[in-house]
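Data deposition worksheet. Section B asks for the primary sequence of the deposited chain exactly as it was used as input, without tags or linkers unless they were present during the calculation. Section C holds the resulting structure in token form. Section D is free text for depositor observations; keep each observation to a single sentence. Incomplete worksheets are returned to the depositor.
Section A, Depositor: J.P.
Section B:
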Amino acid sequence: MAFVQVIEYETEQKDKLDDVFDEWVRTTEGRRTASHELHTQDHDRPDHYVDIVEFPSYAQAMANSSLPETRRIVEQMRALCTGTPRFLNLEVLREDQF
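Section C:
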């Protein structure tokens, strides 16, 4: 079953953070193991974001986290966020399509 990483953060620098994410996508082409990503914004708190990143497995997620580009983006992200981003590593136990 799949593995999901949830990244929750707040920023007032969304455009700069988008540039950082775009650079990560470009520089990890062919090496990243993430299979799907949802970038979401809290409707009631516009500076609050949650990214949901799907991987085939925990091992693949950890391989992705080990990429130098991923470590670099985390540091850049921390610098652009208000407070510390929260990372959750979640095993998918059940998936339903409605």
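Section D:
The longest helix spans residues 14-27.
The chain has one domain: 3-91.
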